[in-house]
Amino acid sequence: MGKQKAHIQFVLNGETAEVAFAPHKTLLEVLREDLGLMGTKHGCELGECGTCTVLVNGRSILSCLMLGLDAEGQDVKSIEGMANGSQLHPLQETFADTGAAQCGYCSPGFLLVAEELLKKNPNPNRETIKEALSGNLCRCTGYIKIYEAVELAAARMRGEEMELPRASVYGLE
Amino acid sequence: MRAYIPSYQLVTPPSLGEALDVLAADGGVWRPFAGGTDLMVLLEAGKLPHKNYLNIWNLKELRGIEVTAQHVTLGALTTYTEVQQEKVLQEEFPMLCQAASETGGLAIQNRGTLGGNIVNASPAADSPPALLTYDAELELISLGGARWVAYHGFHTGYKQMIIRPDELLTRIRLPRSADKLQHYYRKVGTRKAQAISKVCFAGTAQVRDGKIEDLRIALGSIAPVPLRCVKTEDALRGSELNQPAIAQARAVLANEIVPIDDIRSTSNYRHQVSLNLLEDFLRQLSA
Questions:
Q1: Torsion of CA B76, A112, A54, B41, to 10 degrees
Q2: Residues B161-204: pLDDT tens digits?
C-alpha cells in the first residue's frame, strides 16, 4: 500500500466530505481518527459484535470490516447523522424512554440497524426485530428493552399511540 | 493482535480486464479481495499470511443476477442480502436464500458475497452445501479466456481449489429444474444467529409413489471440503422411503463423512448430528 495517502470524496451524514488517510485504514478508523467522529465504536473488530455498524447507501455494514477506500463515492451515515439537528430520531427518543441504553457502547450500532429495518419494514413483529438485530451484541440490557424501543419507535413513526411498556421500564408492578 | 499493516499491498483495478492483467502479471502473488468479511477478520487477528490483495469490490462485471429459461446466473459479488431478495431464488432455490439468511447478521449479509463464500473455501461455509445440491457451475476467467466448471469437484482438499492463480471467479450458474423438488436445509450452530456451523445439511429430492426418484445431499463442516455425499445418494436413489432404507442410508453416510474435533464442536457430535439430520430429511419427504 506504500506510504502515499489515499484521498477520497464521499457523502457523510448528508454532506460532501473529503479525507486523506493511510490507504490500509478501515472505514471505522477513518471516521474516528481522520474525521474525528467518535460515535462509531471500536468493539471486537472481528465482525462479531456489531457496535461499529454504519449505513452505506442505506444498508448497515460493519465499518471494522470495510476499507475506507471503498467509501469513495458512497453515501455513509454514522450515528452523528441520525438526529436532524437538535431533533432526535424517534428511535433515539425511544431508546432513552425505555432505558434501552445502559452503558451505551452498543447503541450506535443497534440504532442504525434498527433504522434500516424500519425503513424496509415499518411494522415489524418481535421475531423480525430479533432477527434484524441478531448481529449486534448488548451485555447490559438483556435485549428486551431494545426490542421494546424499536416497537415503540415503529408505532410512533406510523403515527400510532403506544403505551410505554411500564413493566420493563419500572419493574413488575 | 492486529497484523503489521504497512507490509500489505492493495490495488483497486477499475475494470475486469485490468484486474486480470494484474493477476496474470505476477501469477500467485495477488489474491482477490471482495466484501472483506472473512479476510478483514484474519487481518485484525494478525492471521492473514498473504500480503498482496486485488480489491475487486468495484468490478461491475461481477454484479447482477440474470435469469434465463435454463439458468439463474449470479455475479460473484452478489451479496447474501441480494440472494435473499431475488424472487426466482426464493421460489426455485430456497435453500440458497435460507443459507444466506443464516450467514452472519444483517451487516455481514449486506457485505459478504456468494463468490467470496466459495473461494474462501471454508468447509464450514453455509452456502456451499446448497450450491452443491443445486448442481451449481462456476465461471472462471483469465486473460486466456473463460471456462465453466462444475462446483462439485471444485474443492480438492482443505482450502485447495482447481482455480488457477491467474483466474477470477466471476459468475455462479444454477440450472433451473422443471421437476418438482423437495428442499431441506438445516444449519446447526451454537446459537441461531451469527454463529459458525457445527454441521450444515442440504438435501433435495424428487419422490414419486413412495420412491425416491432422484436426490442430492451435501454437508458442511464434516470433511476438509464442503461434501456432496454421492455414496449416500446412490444408496437412496430408486429406493422406497421406509425404515430399512433410512437405516441403510445412515450407515453409508457414517462412512462417507470425516468430521474432526475443533473449537466449534467434536467429531463425535458432528457424526451423530449428521446422521440425525439425514434421517430428519428423509422422514420429512412427503411421498
A1: -60
A2: 999 999 999 999 999 988 889 999 999 999 888 889 999 999 99
Q: Tell me which chain A residue has its CA closest to the CA of residue B35.
A: A66
pLDDT 10s digits, B1-31: 677 777 788 888 999 999 999 999 887 899 9
Q: Is A26 at the interface with chain B, CB within 8 A?
A: yes
3-state secondary structure of A59: strand
Q: Does B148 touch chain A (CB under 8 A)?
A: no
- Determine the average pLDDT of the residues in A58-74: 95
The three three-digit cell numbers of residue B111, written as one number: 457485505
For B14, phi and psi rounded to 5 degrees? -80, -15
Residue to substitute from A8, A21, A24, interface B, most B β-carbons within 10 A: A24
Whether domain B5-55 has CATH 3.30.43:
yes
pTM of the complete model:
0.91
Residue A16 lies in a domain: yes
Residue B36 CB contacts under 8 Å (≥ 6 apart), including other chains: A65, A66, A67, B111
Top CATH class of B182-284 equals alpha beta
Band (A171; pLDDT cuts 50, 70, 90)? low
Selection from A22, A69, A73 nearest residue B54 by Cα: A69
CA distance A75 to chain B (A): 15
- What ipTM does this complex have? 0.85
Output the nine-digit C-alpha cell for B82: 441480494
Q: Hey, are the CB atoms on A62 and B37 less than 8 Å from each other?
A: yes
A65–B contact, CB cutoff 8 A: yes
Domain extent for A135 = 90-157
- pLDDT, position A1: 46
Q: Which residues of A touch B111 (CB under 8 A)?
A: 61-62, 65-66
Q: Where are the domains of chain B?
A: 5-55, 61-175, 182-284
Which CATH fold topology does B61-175 show?
A: 3.30.465
B29 touches chain A (CB under 8 A): no
Whether residue B162 lies within 8 A of chain A, CB to CB, comes out as no
Does residue B6 belong to the interface with chain A, where contact is any CB pair within 8 Å?
yes
For B112-132, write each residue's pLDDT tens digit.
999 999 999 999 999 999 999
